[in-house]
């Protein structure tokens, strides 16, 4: 068992109140690490340290920051096995999903190497004779990042790499269920040459210290991944204090399968879309709409494939399903399944438990009075619904407060493009799973699924701000409008 400490100013710092909590391995709820229960004092110290480091290093050349990111990519590639082990043991990632995270982290770092040289402005024609006018992008100062338990490496790398690449300092508050990855990131950035104080980590309960971090007067920008409820709360704090922010929140993502779809590909995409990492993914296809003429055929094929989805040893490459992260989340998954059963839904596959693992579950006949109809389960549970036309499929797909990802399977290009244009989602995939991400794309959702976008291009909006600068000869007249 490891005992963590806060990472502030380039080194380990003990909890100010001496209090620690247990980080549990979700396979059997054994203690994996001991973690400091951060306080407002710890947060204030981290932010003040970050701000002073930002003032000291804000004018470093782009080549220096580029060097940190390039070195971090080398270290990340060297240490992928170490990061994967933590993802398996701390958050119950099957090794295939842990491998996806580590590969994405390396890819994101490589994509971010060029960011320091892309922080550009432009020259602007002036209405005043003899005046030179231009715009600059400058770092905002201190960026606060809050990461989730399900993809702590992907989000930790995304947030911190972009903050550092754009000349900012960074303070990370990781999920209390996934603190160890943050410790590895601190050591990665230290080895990569990032000056002390530019990357900091405070551990603790987000409900207790999150507002201290997001509301701190020296935090200029916030990037958060988590629930829609907490995201709305953070948005209120940011709005009151006029801070920049990006929110990547929950989802109830629809997967639409038309009668002309390649059935085998649609079944495989549906399996991956909802059961990867036991459904604990915001882009999970928890609503699958199938054209009525092939509904029974798809339901039979999908239920059969689902019954073969393997759980068990997390380091076995063919394992798809691992444990649900916590007892609170297990209760939520059980409640959704039991409520649907009690109100008449048919369980086509799954619905059973083995320890902390829930089998891949497919429901049919879900109606609006069932909890699972509207709420995000965040577990290996999906529901099948029939539709008769593309218009109906769109209406059903858009009938949710969420709008993160959506997917359609069809050979009809007109249908595909119509769906892509009219689906109320931040991301739409054609003949592909709902679950996909790449470093350089504008990743994010609409409605209750988020605000703003992530990515090596999109993040410039919250990591930098525009400044307008004009110059006129000291000997020229002070012209005006």
UniProtKB/TrEMBL annotation:
Keyword hit for Cell inner membrane: no
Domain Aldehyde dehydrogenase per the UniProt entry, residue ranges: 18-469
Active site: 248
Native source species: Altererythrobacter litoralis
Domain of life where this protein originates: Bacteria
Protein name as it appears in the record: Aldehyde dehydrogenase family protein
Organismal lineage: Bacteria, Pseudomonadati, Pseudomonadota, Alphaproteobacteria, Sphingomonadales
SUPFAM superfamilies in alphabetical order: ALDH-like
Keyword annotations of the record: NAD, Oxidoreductase
Similarity section: Belongs to the aldehyde dehydrogenase family.
Keyword NAD: yes
Pfam families linked to this entry: Aldedh
